[in-house]
Design goal:
By secondary structure, the chain is an alpha/beta fold. It has 18 helices and 19 strands.
Length: 586
């Protein structure tokens, strides 16, 4: 059997940074070539970053991507790397009118093989996802070819992300084309437990394709999306050969023994009858490489626990958002409560405590233990903390307006929000909103108060999970012999907004364990009230919770972006009208 050393580069890419992304491809290709790689692959749309969203509709950006691809091919050759085939994702456009009736020049989510200073093969994603955060029917036309490249005597079939997730298309076409290896490039966003789903998918597709299958994925973050890497190679039986770590940039190298390509290259139509995928075959090296000792038998990285996965995703998302948007520090309003404490801990892990600033803003209703907890958090983590009491500002407003009840409570929150934004304007740190998914769901937040900020790190984390993550982070610190970052009192005391005497969250909300279970059914799974009641919840409680969710839509629209870790985060995943008289009834 011919041998092939495959290099899968799971790297971070920044949307729009064509030069920086190209530099990363060259640097990583050199790393792989120096280690004897025969074929080097990079993630989906690595040259442009992903997702490009409406940038795909700008012809200037599409042409810049195409030009960057050609320049990259030349640069690889100029730097002595032209002999190594490199697979990169980029943004392209169709050359002719599409069979769906779309005009020539329509954008394509594409990939290309670069070799010898040339772009030797291009193809576009065949299956276009149009669910969750994906809007690819809005932007792209699908590809209709089955690309196959012959390298070192092995036919390598190529695919892009959704081509693997959907039945049909390029997976069975790879079998019909007689491929010895299927390589798919991906930018699949993270969500909890997706790594398990992904592994089973790759195993299944390898068996369907009848060949070793390699899945190279992106890592890093882009706005609300986080990519966890987890590149995988499995053999034709679905057995894992190699697997990269999660949330890290890595070059996964593996030596493979693969079937020799047929004497005659595949041609004709390899897809299902109704898909008509036309084989495009390019031969780069027909003869196998001389036998060599196997140096890279394949490593399988250890899996992360659910809590470590979620926490690492939050750290990765915040670090990417802050760094890629040109900030070097963040500002957090520290109340001594669990939410702001977890946000501060995540920020310290993402950026370093020297780049995290906290402000304690006590009012007449702030307990002494909450003030002490904020100070203790700063001591434990090393972040910068100052205290600015809002009493004088609050008294001035009250003297002018004479507010009572909820208006008085919300005024305190809005004063704090105004203070945070003023410091941000003056000194430059990016303000982090501390709200969690439970609060966002039921509208338990104040517009222009605790909802102010440029990023919400725990926006997609239910309150119950906030407590789990805080306990996990403290336990990890204790295991390492470090000081746990979050004060124990912040974890154990009953949650309270402290906007009136003796206030507790349970005055306005059900117990969080019950609330989150109902929210998970309604928000994440789109279950109706009757279905939720059938799970054993009181009809009156279900109706009340669902009503709170429905009427808070206008608040969520104004909340800052935040890291997505669930199958359905607020934002692109869940799109409901603000003006909406439909109400669920049990």
């Amino acid at each position: 059997m011919p041998q092939l050393r495959l290099a899968l580069n799971q790297i971070d890419a920044t949307v729009g940074d064509l030069a920086g992304n190209a530099d990363a491809v060259v640097r990583r290709t050199r790393h792989a070539a120096d280690r004897g790689a025969h074929f080097v692959a990079f993630p989906e749309m690595v040259l442009t970053g992903y997702p490009v969203e409406d940038l795909a509709l700008r012809s200037s950006f599409v042409e810049a991507s195409r030009a960057a691809l050609r320049a990259l091919a030349g640069r690889l050759a100029d730097e002595g790397l032209g002999g190594t085939p490199v697979l990169v994702g980029y943004l392209d456009r169709s050359e002719e009118r599409h069979r769906y009736g779309l005009p020539a020049g329509s954008p394509e989510d594409a990939a290309a093989v670069l070799h010898g200073g040339e772009v030797v093969l291009t193809f576009a994603k065949h299956h276009l996802p149009n669910y969750g955060v994906f809007d690819e029917f809005r932007y792209f036309v699908p590809g209709d070819t089955m690309p196959v490249v012959r390298v070192a005597g092995v036919d390598i079939a190529l695919a892009i992300c959704e081509d693997l997730w959907q039945d049909g298309g390029r997976v069975p076409a790879a079998r019909r084309a007689g491929a010895g290896l299927l390589v798919t490039v991906n930018a699949s966003p993270y969500e909890l437990n997706k790594d398990d789903t992904r592994l089973e998918l790759v195993r299944k597709r390898a068996q369907e394709a009848g060949c070793t299958t390699a899945y190279v994925a992106m890592t890093g973050g882009q706005d609300e999306l986080v990519y966890d890497g987890d590149s995988i190679v499995v053999d034709e039986r679905g057995e894992v050969v190699a697997r990269a770590a999660q949330f890290t940039e890595e070059c996964l190298l593996v030596d493979l023994d693969l079937p020799a390509a047929a004497a005659e290259p595949p041609s004709g139509t390899a897809g299902l009858a109704d898909e008509g995928l036309r084989v495009e075959h390019v031969t780069l090296s027909a003869e196998p490489v001389a036998p060599y000792p196997r140096r890279y038998a394949g490593t399988v990285a250890e899996r992360l626990s659910d809590e470590e996965e979620m926490y690492t995703a939050l750290v990765t998302g915040l670090r990417a958002y802050v760094g890629k948007n040109g900030f070097d520090s963040v500002l957090v309003g520290l109340s001594g409560g669990i939410d702001s404490s977890l946000v501060a801990a995540v920020a310290c892990d993402a950026l370093g405590a020297a780049h995290v600033y906290g402000i304690s803003m006590p009012s007449r209703y702030s307990s002494q233990h909450s003030r002490d907890d904020a100070a203790e958090l700063a001591r434990r983590t090393g972040l910068h903390l100052r205290s600015v009491p809002i009493g004088p500002m609050f008294d001035a407003y009250m003297a002018s307006l004479g507010l009572t009840g909820l208006a008085e409570e919300n005024l305190q929150s809005r004063l704090r929000g105004t203070l945070l934004m003023a410091v941000s304007n003056q000194d430059g740190p990016l303000v982090l909103a501390p709200g969690n998914k439970s609060e966002l769901a039921v509208g338990y937040s104040t517009l222009y108060g605790d909802s102010v900020g440029a990023y919400g790190p725990i926006k997609d984390v239910y309150k119950s999970a906030v407590f789990r993550l805080a306990k996990w982070r403290n336990a990890v610190a204790a295991e390492r012999g470090e000081i746990p970052p979050i004060p124990e009192n912040s974890v154990t005391k009953p949650p309270s907004a402290e906007l009136r005497p003796d206030q507790l969250d349970t005055d306005s909300l059900p117990d969080y364990a019950v609330l989150d279970a109902i929210l998970e059914l309604y928000v994440d799974r789109d279950r109706g009230s009757a279905e939720i009641v059938a799970q054993g919840y009181e009809p009156e409680l279900v109706e009340r919770v669902l009503r709170m969710v429905d009427t808070a839509e206008y608040k969520r629209r104004q909340y800052p972006p935040g890291t997505k870790i669930s199958p359905k985060g607020f934002g692109k995943d869940r799109r409901l009208p603000i003006t909406n008289r439909w109400r669920e009834r049990a």
